[in-house]
Inverse folding.
């Protein structure tokens, strides 16, 4: 985008006619509106001009005009927590944060406000805590300060589920920190004991060190290891052996045996017990932090709809809570406000940004009698709406419930390690029991029989088994993240490897969602340039995406026109310019036909037609097309080569679906699907035994994303799509999808190898232990070496991924 | 010898416990809640940019 026609502040192209020129410090600066000019002056006025060099914006923020709303003091007061009369805190979510500089700017500018004490903004979640002095500033004026800078604040209260998840994550972190700290101490003691084993040690010193070791291990087992202990208890209650049970078994026997050895003068294995817990906690910590973000998805959905509405009663307009609105009420929504509940338009027509609902970036014109959804943004004019449904029944709320249902219904993915444990635990216990029984009836002391049985449990301990999955998952997801592929947890990684069907959404996923001029068909006797010339003169005044596409094409052809005067916009249909000597019409076929223009039939395929006429004669047609992503064809074919079924699921009409399918070589498609239909289709596939991945970007895909085995969203999609998905591509590049599947498949392969090695080790050592022939130190050596083997096999996975993609990158890009 | 080992071990445990308490405090204060932001924040200059003298605009942005 050339800098000359982009707004200095928001970086968007300046619609002709809206240009605002300001002179600051002797430099001429061009803005797209007074709002941007105002924000620029605030920022430079505070000496923070460096923001403009620092920022790194890729996507659009809050649309201009979103800031005219008044903030309602009474509603905000509910969200404020007051500490004492000079200090209160308000939590909020700030819409429109796009990069770290936005956080920086907000924090710097807000603390300059009188009465605001501290501002803390979480970059990852866009949540902020503002501590202020209620005597000096009111919550509403804090909110308007935020919105003056071009960001949209929403009051925010955390849901109970999310709060619980956050507490959980914190307690996990503390448990891990404690385990890590104590294990480090323990390693020191263990090294002394290892040394003593080989070189001899004073028995008193040895015993003293053993006591210290016992002292530091006890909290690790019973405090840090509590999640495993309670998990094991649950699995016993459910009679379903799990990994937790196996871990607990190993830890408790190692710990219990060591306590016994402590009094008996034997070797202790406290380090084994502590290390298992520490390493496995680390794995869970990583998984938990990735998973945590998805929990807020539902909250965020509901937060889209504003909490207050302007109710129209007779002559006056009152502000009421959205939840009080009943069907039949009349409300007024001004430009820049979101629609609070599902409504039907009573009066007026306006362009709405429905991208939060549909994922389609184009504004849509809604006129009298049409329904509008809660959470959509009114862009151009004030409209009067008749309430259709109460807030709890709105489309957004129903969608949130569907997502919640889908998430609850979805059976937790049983990881490979868990399934192995189901088999392995009973076998180990049986062997241990058998060992005890065998020795009990032989001619050895009874304690010896018990010790041999315990030895079986200790060597069967899941050190390598426990590490097999987490290390591979850690390496795979770490390397994937470096390539912009984010797996939300190890089970997702395993599931992705098992996928056999991929369903794509169309707009924004396979296509770019940005319309361009595909073809220009001038009327006989006209040239393409003439046609473009006429069209661009009219369209230059419009900010509709199709108009922008046409202007871009005109600029490419070197056509520069001034803005035409007296252009009339007929929303959703076209433009009409009636000059002194000429009348130009640009728009749909029906629009031109209404004015009596005769249009020959045009073979447009599935493209959108924009017809042009001059003084009643047809001049030609521009065919508009939402192009495919560059890499779509290549990406889909490489996915098909992996043996995956590809399907297109779209809400669009059949022609458009067919056209896209033909281009990317997808054979199967389903058109005209609503959000619920997509879920039904996916459920049906799952019933017939398929493992389905859904790739989508809109709010209408959210239920499908969460009901699919793996939901995948790309950066640039709606927030809700990103948060309900299990797999996120941080760059909007479909080739990464193929990489994700490759990495997942390799990771699963490595996990299987690891499990194999862990078992091979058990296969050798369990019989030795059962026969009472395994010297403790050899058991320890074998255990350590099997762990090293497993860890280095997992590290090999990382090298494999890096090598494959550093070579494969070049051919993939063309 | 025995005594010195005990003293050293207990000393190391005390130091460790100090670090551990510090860690617990940090978690409780929420220092680990946002692990994404600080890596960018560190690039920001701490020096407060000069606030311009009285001007006709942005009056309420000065303390």
């Amino acid at each position: 985008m050339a800098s000359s026609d982009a707004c200095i502040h928001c970086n968007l192209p300046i619609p002709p006619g809206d240009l605002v020129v300001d002179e600051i410090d002797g430099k001429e600066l061009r803005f797209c509106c007074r709002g941007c000019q105002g924000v620029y002056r605030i920022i430079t006025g505070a000496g923070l001009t460096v923001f403009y060099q620092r920022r790194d914006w890729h996507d659009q923020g809050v649309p201009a005009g979103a800031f005219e709303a008044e903030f309602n003091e009474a509603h905000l007061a509910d969200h404020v927590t007051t500490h004492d009369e000079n200090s209160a805190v308000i939590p909020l979510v700030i819409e429109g944060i796009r990069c770290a500089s936005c956080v920086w700017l907000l924090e710097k500018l807000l603390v300059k406000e009188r009465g605001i004490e501290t501002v803390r903004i979480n970059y990852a979640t866009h949540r902020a805590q503002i501590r202020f002095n209620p005597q000096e500033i009111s919550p509403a004026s804090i909110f308007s300060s935020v919105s003056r800078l071009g960001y949209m604040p929403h009051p925010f209260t955390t849901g109970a589920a999310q709060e619980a998840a956050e507490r959980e994550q914190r307690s996990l972190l503390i448990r891990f920190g404690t385990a890590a700290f104590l294990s480090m101490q323990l390693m020191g003691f263990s090294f002394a004991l290892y040394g003593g084993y080989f070189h001899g040690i004073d028995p008193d010193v040895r015993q003293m060190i053993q006591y210290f070791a016992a002292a530091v291990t006890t909290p690790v087992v019973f405090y840090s290891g509590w999640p495993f202990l309670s998990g094991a208890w649950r699995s016993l209650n459910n009679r379903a052996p799990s990994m937790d049970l196996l871990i607990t078994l190993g830890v408790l026997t190692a710990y219990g045996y060591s306590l016994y050895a402590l009094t008996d003068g034997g070797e202790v294995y406290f380090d084994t017990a502590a290390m298992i817990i520490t390493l496995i906690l680390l794995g869970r910590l990583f998984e938990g932090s990735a998973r945590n973000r998805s929990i807020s998805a539902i909250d965020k959905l509901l937060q889209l709809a504003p909490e207050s509405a302007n109710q129209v009663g007779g002559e006056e307009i009152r502000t009421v809570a959205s939840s009080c609105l009943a069907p039949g009420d009349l409300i007024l929504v001004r430009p820049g406000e979101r629609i609070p509940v599902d409504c039907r338009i009573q009066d007026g027509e306006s362009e709405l940004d429905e991208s939060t609902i549909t994922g389609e970036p184009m504004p849509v014109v809604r006129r009298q009698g049409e329904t509008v959804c809660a959470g959509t943004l009114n862009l151009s004019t004030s409209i009067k709406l008749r309430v259709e449904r109460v807030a709890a029944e709105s489309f957004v709320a129903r969608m949130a419930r569907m997502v919640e249902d889908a998430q609850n219904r979805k059976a937790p993915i049983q990881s490979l390690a868990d399934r192995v444990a189901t088999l392995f635990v009973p076998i180990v216990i049986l062997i241990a029991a058998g060992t005890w029984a065998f020795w009990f009836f032989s001619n050895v002391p009874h304690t010896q029989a018990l010790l041999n049985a315990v030895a079986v449990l200790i060597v069967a301990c899941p050190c390598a088994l426990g590490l097999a999955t987490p290390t591979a998952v850690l390496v795979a997801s770490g390397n994937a993240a470096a390539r912009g592929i984010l797996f939300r947890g190890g089970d997702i990684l395993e599931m992705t490897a098992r996928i056999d069907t991929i369903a794509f959404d169309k707009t924004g996923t396979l296509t770019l969602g940005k319309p361009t001029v595909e073809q220009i068909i001038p009327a006989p006797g006209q040239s393409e340039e003439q046609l473009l010339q006429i069209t661009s003169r009219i369209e230059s005044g419009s900010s509709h995406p199709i108009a922008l596409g046409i202007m871009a094409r005109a600029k490419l052809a070197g056509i520069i026109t001034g803005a035409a005067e007296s252009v009339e916009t007929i929303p959703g249909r076209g433009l009409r310019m009636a000059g002194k000597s000429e009348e130009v019409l640009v728009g749909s076929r029906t629009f031109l036909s209404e004015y009596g223009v005769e249009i020959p039939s045009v073979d447009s395929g599935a493209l959108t037609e924009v017809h042009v006429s001059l003084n009643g004669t047809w001049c030609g047609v521009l065919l508009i097309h939402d192009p495919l992503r560059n890499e779509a064809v290549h990406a889909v074919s490489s996915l098909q080569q992996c043996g995956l079924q590809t399907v297109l699921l779209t809400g669009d009409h059949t022609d458009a679906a067919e056209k896209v399918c033909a281009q990317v070589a997808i054979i199967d498609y389903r058109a005209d699907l609503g959000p619920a239909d997509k879920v039904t289709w996916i459920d049906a596939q799952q019933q017939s035994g398929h493992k389905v991945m859904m790739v989508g970007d809109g709010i209408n895909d959210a239920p499908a994303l969460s009901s699919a085995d793996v939901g995948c969203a790309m950066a640039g999609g709606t927030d809700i799509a990103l948060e309900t998905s299990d797999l996120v591509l941080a760059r909007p590049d479909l080739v990464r999808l193929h990489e994700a599947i490759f990495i997942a498949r390799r990771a699963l392969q490595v996990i299987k190898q690891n499990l194999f090695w862990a078992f091979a080790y058990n296969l050798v050592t369990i019989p030795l232990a059962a026969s009472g022939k395994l010297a403790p130190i050899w058991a320890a050596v074998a255990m350590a070496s099997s762990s090293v083997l497993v860890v280095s096999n997992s590290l090999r996975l990382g090298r494999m991924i890096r090598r494959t993609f550093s070579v494969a990158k070049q051919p993939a890009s063309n | 010898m025995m005594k010195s080992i005990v003293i050293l071990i207990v000393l190391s445990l005390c130091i460790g416990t100090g670090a551990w308490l510090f860690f617990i405090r940090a978690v409780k204060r929420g220092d680990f809640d946002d692990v994404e932001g600080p890596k960018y924040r560190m690039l920001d200059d701490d020096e407060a940019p000069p606030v311009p003298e009285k001007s006709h605009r942005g009056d309420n942005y000065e303390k």
Q: What stands out?
A: The mean pLDDT of chain A is 77. The CA atoms of residues 522 and 620 of chain A lie 4 Å apart. The interface with chain B takes residues 41-42, 45-48, 50, 100-101, 103-104, 108-109, 112-114, 121-125, 145, 166, 170, 173-174, 177-178, 181, 184-185, 188-189, 202, 204-205, 208-209, 212, 216, 289 of chain A (CB under 8 Å).
